[in-house]
């Protein structure tokens, strides 16, 4: 029997892994695509955005879970946005203090984490209905899944578009970079390839499960 989504979820291994594979925010749910396409021209930018988003996911998820019985239902969305914006501000100043070049590279997309559907969706659909530990583990899985997706794009685009990986030269001076991968159209192209590959892998996994059940 399927679990009632209105009831608190039980903590399990699936609580962590569903955000990485079954409900990957980018490759399955197609959420947060603006930063995915905009800042993944290098692996460094992709990793930084992924870690920043994960931090906000974790902190906002924990705080929303702690305050879930206090926040009135009528203003819950506004309260969630205020909580998320608080941690986004912390991340914004932290990145600016750590690396000004990285801060300029990520641009306005740091502040736009506030509007990321992944974070608000987790706060509304999971953290507001579950205990702190569950909310933390679930947010961690979603953050890992989101960071993994950004890195998948960032690595391919940097290697093909610049001939480097995390700023390190891979092919020497004779390599001719494919400039299209460093441009916005390259983001759409690489994302479509990863979505296609991810769909194939998920279909194969489902077929294997069906074959095991039928055996």
Structure, briefly:
With 215 residues, this protein is an all-alpha fold. It is built from eight helices and two strands, in the order H-H-H-H-H-H-H-E-E-H.
Give the SSE layout:
Layout: H1 13-17, H2 33-38, H3 43-66, H4 76-98, H5 100-106, H6 117-125, H7 132-162, E1 164-165, E2 168-169, H8 184-214
Antiparallel strand pairs: 1-2
Helix pairs in contact: 3-4, 3-6, 3-7, 4-5, 4-6, 7-8
Counted up, domains total 1
The major sheet is characterized as: 2 strands, antiparallel
Continuous helix count: 8
Parts with pLDDT < 50 across at least 5 consecutive residues:
none
Supply Rg: 19 Å
Beta-strand proportion: under 5%
Helix percentage: 55-70%
How far from one another are the termini? 22 Å
Shape: flat
Q: Spell out the helices and strands N to C.
A: HHHHHHHEEH
Order of strands side by side in the largest beta sheet? 1-2
Structural class: mainly alpha
Secondary structure: number of strands: 2
Overall mean pLDDT: 89
């Amino acid at each position: 029997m399927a679990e009632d989504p209105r009831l608190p979820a039980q903590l399990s291994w699936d609580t962590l892994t569903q955000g990485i594979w079954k409900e990957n925010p980018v490759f399955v749910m197609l959420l947060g695509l603006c930063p995915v396409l905009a800042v993944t021209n290098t692996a460094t930018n992709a990793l930084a955005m992924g870690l920043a988003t994960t931090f906000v996911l974790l902190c906002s998820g924990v705080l929303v879970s702690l305050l879930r019985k206090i926040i009135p239902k009528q203003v819950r969305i506004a309260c969630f946005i205020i909580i998320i914006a608080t941690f986004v501000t912390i991340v914004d100043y932290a990145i600016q203090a750590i690396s000004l070049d990285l801060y300029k590279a990520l641009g306005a997309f740091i502040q736009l984490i506030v509007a990321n559907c992944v974070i608000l969706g987790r706060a509304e659909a999971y953290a507001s209905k579950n205990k702190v530990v569950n909310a933390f583990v679930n947010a961690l899985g979603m953050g890992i899944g989101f960071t993994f997706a950004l890195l998948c794009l960032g690595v391919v685009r940097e290697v093909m578009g610049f001939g480097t990986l995390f700023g390190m030269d891979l092919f020497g001076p004779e390599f001719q970079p494919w400039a299209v991968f460093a441009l916005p159209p390259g983001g759409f192209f690489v994302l479509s390839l990863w979505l296609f590959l991810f769909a194939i892998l998920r279909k194969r996994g489902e077929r294997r499960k069906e074959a095991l059940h039928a055996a």
